[in-house]
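the two lines:
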Amino acid sequence: MTTSVGKAPAVAPTSSSESDSFPEDGRRRVVVSSVGPRIANGRFAVKRTEGDVLRVRADLVADGHDVVAGVVRARVVGASDWVERKLASLGNDRFEAELTLDRVGRWELEVEGWIDAFASWHHELERREELGEVLDIDLAIGARLLADAATRAEASDRARLDAAAKALLDRAEPIELRTTLALALDLLALASAHADRSHATRSEPWPVVVDPVHARFAAWYELFPRATGEEGAHGTFRTAETWLPYVLEMGFDVLYLPPIHPIGLAFRKGPENTLGAGPEQPGSPWAIGAPEGGHTAVHPALGTLDDFDRLLKSARDLGLKVALDIAFQASPDHPWVRQHPEWFKHRPDGTIQYAENPPKKYQDVYPFDFETESWRELWAALRDVFRFWIARGVTIFRVDNPHTKPVPFWQWCIESIKADHPEVTFLAEAFTRPRLKYALANVGFSQGYTYFTWRSTKAGLMEYLTELTRPDIADTFRPSFWPNTPDILPDDLQYGGRPAFLARLILAGTLSSHYGIYGPVYELEEHLARPGSGEYAKSEKYEIRQWDRNRPSPTRRAITSLNAIRRAHPALQRNETLRFHPTDNEFILCYSKIWGEDVVVVAVSLDFQHRQSGWVTLDLASLGIDPEETFQVHDLLGGGRHAWRGSRSYVDIDPQALPAQIFAVRRKVRSERDFDYYL
Amino acid sequence: MTTSVGKAPAVAPTSSSESDSFPEDGRRRVVVSSVGPRIANGRFAVKRTEGDVLRVRADLVADGHDVVAGVVRARVVGASDWVERKLASLGNDRFEAELTLDRVGRWELEVEGWIDAFASWHHELERREELGEVLDIDLAIGARLLADAATRAEASDRARLDAAAKALLDRAEPIELRTTLALALDLLALASAHADRSHATRSEPWPVVVDPVHARFAAWYELFPRATGEEGAHGTFRTAETWLPYVLEMGFDVLYLPPIHPIGLAFRKGPENTLGAGPEQPGSPWAIGAPEGGHTAVHPALGTLDDFDRLLKSARDLGLKVALDIAFQASPDHPWVRQHPEWFKHRPDGTIQYAENPPKKYQDVYPFDFETESWRELWAALRDVFRFWIARGVTIFRVDNPHTKPVPFWQWCIESIKADHPEVTFLAEAFTRPRLKYALANVGFSQGYTYFTWRSTKAGLMEYLTELTRPDIADTFRPSFWPNTPDILPDDLQYGGRPAFLARLILAGTLSSHYGIYGPVYELEEHLARPGSGEYAKSEKYEIRQWDRNRPSPTRRAITSLNAIRRAHPALQRNETLRFHPTDNEFILCYSKIWGEDVVVVAVSLDFQHRQSGWVTLDLASLGIDPEETFQVHDLLGGGRHAWRGSRSYVDIDPQALPAQIFAVRRKVRSERDFDYYL
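prediction for all of em together
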């Protein structure tokens, strides 16, 4: 038999230009993957608020049986050094670390993993010790690793590591003693702290935007400043100031003003959205721009910029924030129409098409043409509108119809502004298709309007809230729940009477940590719609209304209670722990929120006419309540106290009294870790 | 009252170095996201096989109400031009296209989306027509869009577009007629085909690896060539050739040979894994390397490389593929130990530590040191081992213990080889932690060994298969099911008798489209384990066994039937449609697979001693069967035919006869689109 011996060929039998392109460092044995929370692999930022604890998880996988260690690294972009938090093993190659986001700004995070050579050796030595197989050569390997670690350490750590290395080699001592010394846990910690990270693997950095707390938890009150005048007079910033205590007493955090700019005369809208109004009619505040100026001017009838500054200061002194409405559209009288005709789309006959969404027509408004060759100039001008108001002290904006402007514009605009002013927030008034709403959230909007306004059934609300609290969506899209807006008077409020006003208010303010109402129509229970529309009759959009803020209003008292309850209950200041509990009555919706020691259970009846009652089956485990435990519930609105036990509870709701019950739950508190909060 | 007018400040009130960094093209209004199937945002390749239809989905979101259009673009990297498939709208901003992967290789895909200006105008014109509000100016806008499209078209398309533009402007014709002309669907298609894509948005390209069909659907047979000799003699490549018809007749596609290289003498293992064997013992084929050569040599006792080539050719002529086992480890006698000491880790005393995983010891094997400074040379040498055998005609490799070599090495090695030889496939023998198994799949292994070998309960099998058929995992990890291997003789086979051999075989071959057995121990029903181990007694790993291939074997007949059934039934050639159906007997597992017109339902009893019967509740909808329909089932193993109706069926399984039933279902066939196959 002849022997034929193959040899690795001197020249590879085939060749490829790419085949020898080695990675930068082939000794990075750890693979980092499934890092989260992270959106679309880091393309969009995760959203959190100041002080939040972020729970970061990642897979760190390495070949063989070596021990893997890792950290999460984090910094505020351009503003702080990297901090590191050690990843703890969850088993099965999954790791976790918690990180406190203690500063507003755009953060970047990375996960880094490496092989801990000493820990791997330690682990193997434990097994050898169990088998009674420890040899001097094993300890010599450990000593070498300790000496290596010493070269990376300083001062006392270095000395301790060197001393331990020497001790392991000291054959004058029995091997059992040296093995015990080698297995000491403090030595393991010390050596691991100085592990060799030169072949560590890092994930791509990914962004987390940390906003002020009010981006997550706030109650907004929308008020037309022109409605604050004395009988028959156009309100001003000065008269609006007199309303600040009223808004504050109800417990609102943010006073939101519809556009305050000069209003065009061309195609001005009259009462009830009619055409042909003249200068004697005030027009719609959204028809922005007149000879007096555009988006950086204030309507002369409201006062001066100085008056506006004074309103802002008065509000700030009271602890109330002011949000401005920014609507990127121009009345035909807007100065930009003449100064920058290239920012508008001209038809073959040279005219500009007014905004429309057939059959709706907005004759008093021109849209901007984002397909213009001059898009850079247009973008910069629009961005500078925000900058103008930020320079005057405004940090909260409600953006009108952002979904009719390109998503990439918003990404650029918001990032550009937040780079300098990370505290600024943007609420997207985007009542549009779901994926477009989420796209706007992804590129930077701090909150978004929602479909809550039209979700009036139990199934509809449950389905929608389940979607909103799902990971990724919950990480990027912060819902803002509005029972009404100047554009929308929903059927429930038209026909449901006071119980509807109370129920929709309580749903908004307990289902969502961020909510708002358009007042004073809300607390005064205005419910008349323009016939054949879902809009208010005698809408403030087209005429000046005046409101009696001294009129007694049970709804106003409920608003005040609700806002006080929200402030007192951290559980209501977040949405991620929202959980629905089954009820056997199709009108009764029951849900809970939990945060730390705080547990709140809410039951709302969606029947605004008749008394409804039924059994609720509470998911006690999700509330951290033992099935055998008797726990106390306190009705924060109605005032009653009950002792409950077990998962079945009876609720009985008379909408003519109160259509909802908000229960604070007092239970035995265990470790916070008992509950798997979604951080 | 004084009027104060704000102006956009000439200099921005704040500045940021980044704030004016505009995107390359701000007019790309379409956002492309949620593209799939795509793994970790394109970091790893989706796996498919030649001829598969890939269903690509993406969100294409644009502001406003314009009509969005898009395509999937695809090409074989370095080997073909881009092809495009139009995306069809699924509603709600989601789109889909199907693409036939007609060529083996590494593909790259992109999704591209743009605003279709003419289609948007068309859509708006439809609404205006309904409202009876079409004006000449509207048609003039359409004419301008058509004239624009004409500039992008050629020849007859150009002429048709220009003519249509002119016709729209021809006021001699009534506007109703021109509107009808403008709304013609063929005009819409023509204009859309020449839409302006200069501001289109493209996703990042992402990879799809298309393998030969046998990467997905194949039956392997593992055979030690040294066991093929005449009574008492060491088998050779020549004697192995005489086994080819035997393997072929059973219906196998791949003959897989354990390592064929010279075996080291140092620390050679003797029978039953004993130490101290001498040259009179054959040693373990995995102790690779001796003075005669290493990974590119053949064991002299097996013959020459020419003999190996002849075996390969004989197999190929019969339509049988040969897979080689590549084990990257070296006996102390391997030439590389002297030639490349830098590729091994030396202990403080200068010795090399043999491979071990306490308490298991592999004294006859040195591991390579992937942390060596010379990692580039080591990587290249290992890669060239594959190249050597590829040059001889081997295209299928089974890789021993890949999980003890760095994952990044495999990524580089497999990509390097597949760049020149995309038809080559690699089966990972990685019985390790799940995330490490999936990591190896992600970086390129074509298939992987699985936990099937130890999953013997109904719940265990259902849970595991549910995991394996989940998106992302199913897209990257192709399971290969093995009821036994030379390392593993599971309890079921030790104690279950012939019913166990049949049941485990049928489970492997019907649950997974890719499976294999280690023979002839399997068909000869060898079931004796080395005491206290889950390994075979008298294991072929350490001694030469000889087998009587003429011995009558019912298991062999079942193997032959199973492989014939698999070939006849496309449903069994894939895993993605696997669905379990509830049964009321804890021993009876019932599942189905469906592909096109082919529907197969399998019922297996996991009780190998006693007769079991029970009711199955078939999910008829998933099988495309109407609840009112009577459908025929044909037991492909046992031969019976039954007419079933409705979801409840009774099964009765006597393991002493046959522990499983494989039913072909004949039903009324509807459109293929009735079933939501996961493509």
